[in-house]
Amino acid sequence: MTTRGTGLNADRRRERALALAHARTVVIKVGSAVLSNSQGLDTDVMAELARQMAVVRNAAAGRRLVLVSSGAVAAGRAVLAANGQKVEAAGLAARQAAAAVGQGRLIRVWEDSFAVHGISTAQMLLTRDDLRARARFLNIRNTVAALLHAGVLPIVNENDTVSVSGLKFGDNDCLASLLVNLADADIFINLTSAPGVLAADPRRTPDAPVMEYIDDAAALDLKQLCGGKTEAGSGGMYSKLLAAGRAAQIGVPTLIVQGRAPDVLIRAFDLELAGDGDAPTFFDACQGTWVFPARQAIPHRKFWIAYQSEPAGDVLVDAGAANALLRTGGSLLPGGVHAVEGSFQKGALVRVIHEGQTLGVGLSNYSAAYLKKIMGLKRHEVAAILGDAHYPEVIHRDNLLLDAAV
């Protein structure tokens, strides 16, 4: 982890520049704080970002963009207020109603902004359940691939009007990170209201510098590093770094940068290779934080298992089980479990926790009720209770992702 003040060696700058120059599929997420103001959507900002995305897309043959856009709730509230309607400030139903009003306005502004540059767009509204069901996931993947092949720019948002708490992504940072996997993206760009990732919580350290790069997102202490959520959006830097951590796990770097900085996207993709230790002008002008990908990417299947839904419960393990999982690549056996929290069914995604620390997430072969009956027992003791129709593992190592960004 390095801040702007310490400098970045030429090799790392070159790696960053090459990744941007060679990117063919790019997921760009834009937050509400960038797109909206006190009057609702800032159409000038949206038009400017569309112009920049057109330049970026046309700068390299075959380059394709997927846009994840927030702003429907902010747009809807502004429309309702302008029409003299009462606007509720909180509550799921109020947000869903505002999103229903604002989504049409949001996609219309984007469509008009891209049409000026000859770019056709498509609207995609998703819930987490769409990605959790494997058949739907594959259908969405094929649809995105077909749109990109046809030269259409998909504009994706959460389907707030039908989402319920158990099926919500929580924020569009999460949705965007899942689309990085679905679209086989090369780069993830998160446009935010902040100049980048600050080296300390800005509420405690107002003059904290922007980190020019983050080498290992999994090593960050997000609770210490990040401030609260933004007023306009629902995420904040905490969720942006979680999303960057997920992307890093499948080998995709992330650029977190201020969305309203002048020509921010054009500057980023016009980076020249650093020579003689000179700093690229982009970070001098726009700051921003580059999150490097993991050196060893995880399989896409494990990514889908870990992030297709929120964990339904917790499985607490002893030191021996933790050592087997972390050091020897073992599976989680019943004997290593000493407590079960939550109510979940067989096949549910659960957290694996040791001494208060989440080791990872995985698919449980047992429901919470059955697991409570067999936890701490040896294999022959499990067989005596459940008979031959049982699994030797609580979570098989093939269905387990350690260091999950949850």
From TrEMBL:
Signal peptide: none annotated. GO terms for molecular function: ATP binding; glutamate 5-kinase activity; RNA binding. It comes from the Bacteria. Its EC number is 2.7.2.11. Substrate binds at S70, D160, N172. ATP binds at K29, S234, G235, G236, M237, Y238, S239, K240. The keyword Oxidoreductase does not apply. Pathway: Amino-acid biosynthesis; L-proline biosynthesis; L-glutamate 5-semialdehyde from L-glutamate: step 1/2. Belongs to the glutamate 5-kinase family. This is Glutamate 5-kinase. It comes from Candidatus Desulfovibrio trichonymphae.
